[in-house]
Batch of 3 targets.
Target 1
Amino acid sequence: MRWYQGYRTSSWRVDETYVKVGGRWKYLFRAVDKHGRLIDFMLADRRNTRAAHRFLGKALTTMRHWPPSSITTDQLGSYPKAIRRLQREVKLSADTKHRTCKYLNNIIEVDHGALKRLIRPTRGFQTMRTAAATIKGFEVMRMIRRGHCLTCKPRVKEEIRFVNKLFHIFAVAA
């Protein structure tokens, strides 16, 4: 799917939300660009500096050809520490700005709600592995529906063709 995503802007919005896994609340870290296109996500047991560092490192690896010029987060104290640590490790440019402006993160907050509407009928997940796989599927289908890939067209038949191409399915149900 990454091959079809195309260019991302250099302004990232990063936030976390809660997801129930195995009867316990876990943290779903997500990053989107300023247009709402998904950069990456990660499930974690805790919402601390180590988890934020791991997630941002993963997102930077995913988008290594398009590093961010600015990262907007909420007021969570672990993000500034994680960003400074990544800058010390030279995984993130020292020029990268960290913003904590609340209204700039509205795009990802609204996106959390849309994702949670898909997750709610599942009534939680049994394991982290199934949660990650299911959320990945939800995110891919949402990207296709919203036209966040280069070859996606906003028609159902085109969506079917694209999914068939991704999964190497050669018979198309008409």
Target 2
Amino acid sequence: MKDLLTDLGYNIEAFSKEAGVGRSDVYHWLKGDYNPSPRSLIRIAEKYNVSVDYMFGFSDRKELIFKKSALTFYERFTRSRMLAGFSCYKIWQECGIGQAAMSRWKTLGCIPETEVFLKLAKCLGCTLDYLLGIGE
């Protein structure tokens, strides 16, 4: 996130105003107190055409190769899990994500918090952009 603000030439106030997010939120994100919500990440990525993986320092590729997914989060998660050869049980073990959470993703269409997205992307070897439904 720091690199993005630097690249844009924005301070916290200018970025928060332009991106439509709270100034105190941006301050806490930069300080590492907590991460942006998935919805905030998507909004920022789309507005500035920047990869969420780049924002977290997981990729040197800054530009978002935008590809809006028709799949639900649960469908994208399941595809990634199967491609990685992981059972649901292995996800529970490796990522510490319980069956109840996965059930909510499937039955209620819920999406996880950012911290869970980070764990899943690392564990499954896929991008945050893909899991968030905005990229490859």
Target 3
Amino acid sequence: VEQHLAGEWLRLMTLLGEPRLIECSRRIFNRVLTDEQRLNWFQKKRLSQDYWAKVCGLSREQLAHAQEALSKSRQKDKKNGMVSVPEPNFFLQRLADE
């Protein structure tokens, strides 16, 4: 089931083509999936920006700019006193239940 969800998520990110969402997805997949799952599904232990850009039809530079934009957004939120919400642990908890 998890592999199908990851596949659908990847398909959606590719269709949307939004670099910031694609970079966020890469980070989430690196955090949520185990090394073994990434090796089985992507043949990579870690999903680098180079690899992820090729998979999603973007350039490495587009993902780097997206990462920079996300970082600037977080810094701006901190300056304005906004508290960033941590990423949901739903997937980590779900995988731990198995």
